[in-house]
Design a protein that fits this description.
It is a single chain. The chain is built from 16 helices and 2 strands. By secondary structure, it is mainly α. Strand 1 and strand 2 form a beta hairpin.
């Protein structure tokens, strides 16, 4: 027996004398290929090699995935239906949901494939992009660092602009509540004063650096968001009987499509949280017909389509940028919604802020002496909250355009463009299927992403200028 065989506790019989009674002692890493008469290494299964301190089961991963998409963005979906029209919005929302599900599927599948090839237990989004390029055709390997950097830049930009939208949500909700009781309040309240006060408070809260310490705040945020959804649903359902369907538009032409597409992407796409959730599972139950992804996306698409459809059906052309703005100012339940939204978004801010700051800090700390890490992190967080506040002040009067811009540029890139390109590369050696259908499909996804990026950005910027 060879030394390598001894090291792996592998007992190999003489293949020429092999029969059904021959006893084989195999390890987890090797298998006997009887047909070819060789000992072959077993396929590496990433899930079997994950060491997880807090593993997620099927239900836990399902809830995390649903929660990552059910944020305040869902309140803007009725406005997206207003842009597209009732019928176009209904069909379009379902199609976008299917497309989002597919691109997440091919991203996770690409990650699992490169993990198996490279014998890596798990990879994040940026790591996956880098590894796909490293294992791809030789001309592309030198671009692996760029691929990683692009994804990291897009994630950082997406989440920082996302929390800028959060800050606008807070100030809009509080302003609507305050101005009812104090109609003569300073007109600069929403534009500057409230945002600066919120900034000062968040500069302290965003110094929390561990996710486990954010759990109580996340619980409070979810509790108040549930209250806001419940009361808003009550107002929508109680008023449906008074609506004349003839006043609603079934379609609004091409001009409304980019805004619709960008808003739904902003609200529905949770691409940044996909890989962390999948990586937390010790068993490969994320993909598949009844896997976590399909089950969660069915719920997500149903909720988004229902709220978008019913919200626009209820308020028609009067639908505001967030459905809560349509609620009456003079009723206590509606006022509770404004306060609940403000509190929920405020306590969700630090969790969303954590993701881009963590990526940015990991890049920075290599260049900073270890004894200065603490002070530099403090200042980094203070500066980034100030920058986010500046973006919120500049774009605060155009919340709908800001949402469209973030969705068009970053969620189209991260959610559609990157997964499609990675899927093209990862299947290069094995082939793209009969008639290159995978290649054609991915090129179509790339074109959709570019359409969303160019057209969505154009109309969002045009609205801001107007």
């Amino acid at each position: 027996m060879s030394e390598d065989s001894k090291n792996h506790n592998l007992s190999i019989p003489n293949l020429e004398t092999y029969n059904s009674k021959t006893k084989l002692v195999m390890t987890d890493n090797f298998k006997l290929d009887v047909e070819n008469g060789v000992v072959a290494e077993k396929l590496y299964k990433p899930h079997e090699h994950r060491v997880l301190s807090h593993p997620n089961n099927y239900l836990g991963a399902f809830l995390h995935l649903v929660k990552s998409s059910l944020g305040t963005g869902i309140l803007a979906v009725p406005r997206a239906f207003k842009s597209a029209g009732l019928l176009v919005g209904l069909v379009g929302n379902i199609l976008i949901g299917i497309l989002c599900t597919h691109t997440v599927y091919i991203l996770v599948a690409a990650s699992e494939k490169v993990c198996a090839r490279g014998k890596i237990p798990s990879l994040g989004f940026a790591d996956t992009a880098e590894e796909v390029f490293k294992q791809g055709p030789k001309p592309l390997r030198k671009w692996s660092g760029f691929a990683r950097g692009f994804v990291e830049f897009a994630l950082i930009s997406t989440y920082y602009l996302g929390v800028a939208v959060y800050m606008v949500f807070i100030s809009v909700s509080l302003t609507k509540l305050i101005t009812y009781y104090y109609p003569d309040v300073n007109p600069l309240l929403d534009r500057y004063i409230l945002k600066i006060i919120i900034m000062a408070l968040l500069m302290g809260l965003c110094q929390i650096r561990e996710i486990k310490h954010m759990v109580p705040f996340s619980f409070v945020a979810n509790l108040f968001l549930g209250v806001a959804f419940g009361i808003t649903g009550y107002y929508i359902f109680s008023g449906l009987k008074n609506v004349d369907p003839k006043t609603l538009k079934m379609g609004n032409g091409f001009a409304g499509i980019p805004s619709f597409f960008s808003t739904v992407l902003f609200a529905m796409e949770g691409i940044g949280t996909i890989m962390p959730v999948e990586n937390s599972m010790p068993e490969p139950k994320f993909l598949g017909t009844c896997g976590v992804l399909n089950s969660a996306m069915v719920v997500i698409v149903f909720l988004f389509t229902s709220i978008g459809f019913l919200g626009y059906y209820m308020y028609g052309d009067d639908t505001e940028v967030t459905i809560t703005t349509n609620l009456p100012d003079n009723e206590i339940p509606a006022q509770i919604v404004q306060a609940a939204i403000a509190i929920s978004v405020f306590f969700s801010f630090m969790l969303q802020f954590y993701i881009p700051t963590d990526i940015l800090w990991k890049r920075m700390k290599k260049r900073i002496p270890e004894e200065k890490h603490n002070s530099y992190q403090i200042w980094l967080r203070i500066i980034m909250v100030a920058v986010v506040t500046g973006v919120a002040i500049v774009g605060g009067e155009d919340l709908d355009s800001l949402i469209d811009l973030v969705g068009a540029i970053f969620f189209s890139s991260l959610g559609f463009l990157v997964p499609a390109i990675l899927d093209i590369i990862i299947n290069y050696e094995e082939g793209w299927g009969k008639y290159h259908w995978k290649l054609i499909k991915n090129i179509c996804i790339v074109l959709i992403a570019l359409f969303a990026l160019v057209a969505g950005s154009y109309y969002a910027i045009l609205d801001m200028i107007k």
